[in-house]
């Protein structure tokens, strides 16, 4: 993972701890505005709640982002784009799913077009329950995620590598074709 | 020109719709499918030059689809609904996109959601839905709960080990 030569005094395990401690303080976020949750992001970003004091800033492209927010229901058409964005992000990467719709469908429980559980298709590190979660809940989720990263529990990106076949098989049950 | 006069010119039966809270006059008339184009041209040349919407209703008990063409006149401030009925087992109609170009988008949507065929419209491909594999979903005999259960709940969970870094 680290290409630079390690200082001999720091063992590998400790070095990873330092990496995690540093990376949790600079999460760059891309928010995938799929549903109503995008409305909760402006107060979180701006001066009222000010997520930048935790080192989280919104980022324009997935290749520079560490954290993806899925802010609402996910239609089959959206899922294809979410998987695309997720696969463009560089490791380590984290996913937070907003609201009750990515958990079990929410008010779209009987819809023909909404996938009900997001973590069947991409790994989700943290769910925020609620319809919609208030900015306080979002801030709380950020702090929990930072704690998880520090303790080495937020390893959805490792699961995606390890169970890639299973995730791909589940995704291709929804998509007929991948090339458009 | 008032809508009532145009209806009289075309010899169409019309009814005055009453909507609570809306003071603008609204008229609805049923037209034979082969006379619709002529009627719309007549309305369009007499001030009804705003095409508001095209909608579709599935009358499953009568085995019919109803297409409602909704026009509005800024001069007279009047709404007009012209409706045609198509057989449900083989819904087919010609495109009217040469009269109002925005009809094309409505026709694409209705083709996808109800399965109505519009002859002459060459853009009736995939529109809003993607990778759809069943009957058009807005038809009344489409069971959305059953379809959702079969398609999404049968996807297995990922067998996660929960390992640590």
Keywords:
heterodimer, A: Rossmann fold, five-stranded parallel sheet, 7 helices, 38% helix, 11% strand, B: 165 residues, alpha/beta, Beta Polymerase, domain 2, five-stranded mixed sheet, 4 helices
Structure description:
The complex is a heterodimer of chains A (180) and B (165). With 180 residues, chain A is an alpha/beta fold. Chain A has helices at 12-23, 41-45, 76-88, 101-104, 135-151, 156-162, 164-174; strands at 28-32, 57-58, 67-70, 94-98, 126-128. Chain A has a 5-stranded parallel sheet with strand order 2-1-3-4-5. The radius of gyration of chain A is 17 Å and the shape is globular. With 165 residues, chain B is of the alpha/beta class. Chain B has a single domain, classed as NADH:ubiquinone oxidoreductase Nqo5 subunit (Beta Polymerase, domain 2, 2-Layer Sandwich). In chain B, 24% of the residues lie in helices and 27% in strands. Chain B contains 4 helices and 7 strands; from the N terminus they run H-E-E-H-E-E-E-E-H-E-H. Chain B is elongated, with a radius of gyration of 21 Å. The A-B interface holds A 16, 20, 76-77, 80, 105, 109-117, 119-120, 123, 152-153, 155, 158-159, 162-163, 166-167, 170, 173-177 and B 128-131, 133-134, 137, 142, 144-145, 147-148, 151-153, 155-161, 163-165.
């Amino acid at each position: 993972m680290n290409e630079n030569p390690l200082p001999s005094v720091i063992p590998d395990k400790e070095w990873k701890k330092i990496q995690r401690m540093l990376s949790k303080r600079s999460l760059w976020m891309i928010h995938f505005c799929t549903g109503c949750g995008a409305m909760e992001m402006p107060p979180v970003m701006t001066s009222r709640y000010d997520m930048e004091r935790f080192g989280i800033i919104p980022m324009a492209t997935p290749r520079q982002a560490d954290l993806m927010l899925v802010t609402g229901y996910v239609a089959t058409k959206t899922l294809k784009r979410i998987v695309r964005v997720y696969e463009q992000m560089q490791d380590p990467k984290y996913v937070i799913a907003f609201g009750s719709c990515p958990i079990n469908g929410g008010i779209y429980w009987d819809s023909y077009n909404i996938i009900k559980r997001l973590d069947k298709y991409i790994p989700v590190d943290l769910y925020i329950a609620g319809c919609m979660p208030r900015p306080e809940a979002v801030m709380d989720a950020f702090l929990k995620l930072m704690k998880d990263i520090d303790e080495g529990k937020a390893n959805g990106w490792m699961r995606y590598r390890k169970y890639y076949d299973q995730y791909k098989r589940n995704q291709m049950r929804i998509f007929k074709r991948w090339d458009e | 020109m008032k809508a009532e006069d145009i209806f009289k010119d075309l010899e169409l039966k019309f009814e005055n719709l009453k909507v609570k809270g809306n003071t603008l006059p609204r008229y609805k008339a049923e037209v034979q499918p082969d006379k619709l184009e002529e009627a719309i041209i007549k309305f369009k040349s007499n001030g009804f030059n705003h095409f508001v919407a095209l909608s579709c209703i599935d009358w499953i008990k009568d085995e019919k689809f109803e297409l409602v063409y909704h026009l509005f006149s800024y001069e007279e401030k009047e709404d007009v609904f012209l409706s045609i009925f198509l057989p449900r087992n083989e819904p087919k109609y010609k495109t009217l996109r040469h009269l109002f170009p925005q009809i094309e988008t409505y026709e694409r949507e209705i083709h996808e959601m109800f399965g109505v065929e519009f002859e002459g419209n060459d853009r009736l491909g995939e529109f809003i839905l993607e990778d759809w594999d069943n009957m058009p979903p807005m038809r009344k005999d489409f069971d959305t709960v059953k379809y959702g259960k079969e398609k999404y709940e049968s996807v297995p969970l990922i067998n996660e080990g929960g390992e640590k870094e």
